[in-house]
Amino acid sequence: MTAVVVSDPGQAHLQRLMASWGMLADLCISDLLLLLPFADESGSRFSVIGQMRPTTGQTLHKEDLVGRLIDEVERPLVGRAWRLGEIVEGESGIGGRGERARVQCIPVRFGGQLLAVLTRESPLSIGRRPGELERIYVQVFDRFARMIVNGEFPFLGEDVTTEESPRVGDGVIVLDQGARVEYASPNAVSALHRMGITTNAEGLRLDELGMEETAVERSFATVLPVNEEIERRNDVVISLRCIPLLDQGRITGALALIRDVSDLRRRDRLLISKDATIREIHHRVKNNLQTISSLLRLRARRLHPGLGRTALDDVEREIRSIAIVHEILSRDASEQVAFEEIIRSLVRMAEDTAHSLGKPVRFRTEGDAGELPADVATPLAVIITELFQNAVEHAFPDDGKPDEDGESPGGDAAGDDRPWRVEAALANNGHWLTVDVRDNGRGLPPGFALESTTSLGLSIVRDLVTTQLGGSIAMYGGKGTHVELRIPAGPGAGDGLG
Description:
alpha+beta, 18 strands, elongated
């Protein structure tokens, strides 16, 4: 047998009910189960499709009942409520444990169609009289139960609740038809005191207490729940959620949930301030690196061509590549960097170098490394800068003419007549980041070994990849040079790097 087929609007209604029924469980201080009948609709067998435990009291069901099948022999009140379409309550046995519980069965209706049965289940309270708070909470729940039977709850198009939305345990204010306070729970009274309201609230409207009631007015006007935050002196912030109570479409009052969120908002402001500080630090680091880069460039210009000038030029480019990372970090406080922005800047730097040396080199990139931690993106930017620079300086002849074998790569289909090419391909599968840099130059010299190279640039690349990033590097010759990098990119990538 299969469960009864529910229309898409009906399914959406049941989903809204389960999204908001934490409040209902807290009000009735009971467990809630949502039961869907099987396709014959006889009301003899049901499947549990949802379960909610209260946070205001102990749970009756410690086990998970979702997916459990029950029949009318086990829960006769459920089948009766389904067939009558009315609220049915009484005592019932719970599973095979031999326990008895107080059960209230509430038919769930939407658009005139009976969809499911909501059961409220709680231990028998023999010889105990409920206190005022418990009695008021259950009375409010009974009003919601009637709204569920009438298809008036949950509301269509109501505001979505979040983790910061007030809950029953935070504070409850019950309003009458005229929006006057009928009852305020102790936690609600404490929240009002935090706002400087010490007057007895019962019988008064919120505005008469000196508290804005925009949310109440909007809720009564739109017949929908409304969320609002009210700020007061001394950084006091109160979150208010007003939910209208209906009877056959007529507003009979409202439930106002109230929560002091001052500490949360204070923390949010601190985080915003921290984010701004972090961005400012990255901005200043970027400016300082650019200043250092300019100083090195000025020093290099005063030197005669040779090893000293070349060394300063190399260091200046490396510093500029690091400054690019900090420039992107200065726009966003996140420690993740979109490497696509960085690679574009690195290509422009390499093209400027090639142009200054009079070498017609065309750079092209493909793929995407995705977002990388800053402590991965920074050394990777230096690595790619060095690989581009190495290709420009050593892969191609200074005169831009073909090699001795007479072959020339020529231009490309787009009409680019620059004969030399450097291509970088990046990929990130969430576990590994791969970077392939290829050129169509003269290739590696005979007997080349990366482990024993005397090139300072390649030594820096090798050490950064293997030591700082924990990856591997391989270089291949042939027609041109191919450099292959493989770097960890899974969770924890970049941890402990420095």
